[in-house]
Amino acid sequence: MESTLRRTWAEIDLDALEHNYRALRKQMGPKSRFLGVVKADSYGHGAIHVSRTLAELGAEYLAISNIDEARELRLHGVTLPILQLGLTPADQTANVIANHVTQAVWSERAAEAFSAQAVKAGGRMKAHIKLDTGMSRLGFQCDGEHFQASVDAICRVCALPGLDVEGIFTHFAVSDEAAEDCKEYTLLQHSRFEAMIAALADRGVHFRICHCANSGATVSYPQFAHDMFRPGIITYGIGDQADALGLKPLMTLKTTVGVIKDFTPGTTISYGRTFRAGRPSRVGVLPIGYADGLHRALSNKWRVWTPGGFAPITGRICMDMCMVDLTDLPDVQEGDEVDVYGPHNSVNDAARLAGTISYELTCAVSKRVPRIYFRHGREIDRELLLRD
Ligand SMILES: *Cc1c(COP(=O)(O)O)cnc(C)c1O
Fold first, then answer.
1. Is 248 a catalytic residue?
2. Gap from CA of 39 to ligand 1 centroid (Å)
3. What is the pLDDT of residues 24-66, one digit of tens each?
């Protein structure tokens, strides 16, 4: 669907993606495969264009967390191997196989269900064994008490019919945090990961692809490169560690100054009357609100970047609009473009003010915000995500 635009839109810089991809590959060395994490529509950046660009650049694998996300990529011509990191109901096994998806297998019971369905469908499902080394989410538990039972279970899983177990992986809980206890915990998780791989090798069970490094580990523990690494947030040039590797943000969220109004002192702005003009004020109404992904928690906190400089958000952010103070920016006019997040005002800072993480703010940029893609310095596509 083509967009009519000029309200609110997100510009996605695929040249920044190329820059980040090259920097990350350099960081992890030539032997480790690059798995691009494109779940949640590439953290809101648009999975089809991001995946196509990563494929063109030489990435070896992609990952999503919902089987329909993989179907969407296949429908749009993406042929790279895709790892489904998340939970898939076993009755979707035929779908997994038909879409050439590699499924994470998190328990023996799940493996048995996938195996039975794959046999019934007359196919083989590619699988990666998921280890829980301390995240306490999906996976075979690897702490002392559970270790031996998991070794035995994984050996049985690898012998099940209808499964082609290609890889084994784990996920870190605090690899992006610098505190000493976080480092200790990450090293503990990694030692459990290696111990499990070694114990399985002793039983004659080997894996073609072992992988563990998310963004945090890619920045801080490049020695965990193994056969593949799985950077998500830093691929998009955001998160608190993106600067450490000189990465560039892909997304600039843009809107326009819709209307400018003059208010007398004492006038209150927006729902709840949480902002009161303390002086004669020039206020801009912007066509972006929380339904576009601008979190309401940023009310009276965030500032947008106008051609004249920063303009603070005044009063509560509404569903479709918000107001900004332009009193000190007399040159800003109706129709001017403003950056909600961009090179001058990082989504990382907005996330901190909203009490969350940048992941949540880019994922929240909603489907009614058209994405405009740039490659080799030129606009290549406009995408509106509303139903056709
Ligand atoms: C989301 C996810 C990643 C990527 O995490 P980032 O923090 O964005 O790098 C890697 N592995 C798994 C299993 C994930 O769920």
1. no
2. 9
3. 999 999 999 999 999 999 999 999 999 999 999 999 999 999 9
Q: Name every residue whose Cβ is closer than 8 Å to that of residue 213 and which is 6 or more positions away in sequence.
A: 28, 175, 221, 222, 224, 225, 226, 229, 230, 231
Cα of 291 vs centre of ligand 1, distance in Å, is 26
Question: How many whole angstroms from 36 Cα to the centroid of ligand 1?
Answer: 9
Is this model's pTM higher than 0.70 or not? yes
Per annotation, catalytic residue among 26, 126, 271, 341: 271
Which superfamily does CATH assign the domain made up of 31-235 to? Alanine racemase (3.20.20.10)
CATH 3.20.20.10 placement within the chain: 31-235
Residues with CB under 6 A from ligand 1: 37, 39, 85, 171, 214-215, 230-233
CATH fold of the domain at 251-383: Lyase, Ornithine Decarboxylase; Chain A, domain 1 (2.40.37)
Asked about 261 being catalytic, the answer comes back as no
Q: What is the side-by-side order of every strand in the sheet holding 303-306?
A: 259-263, 281-286, 322-325, 309-314, 303-306, 337-341, 251-256, 8-13, 371-375, 378-383
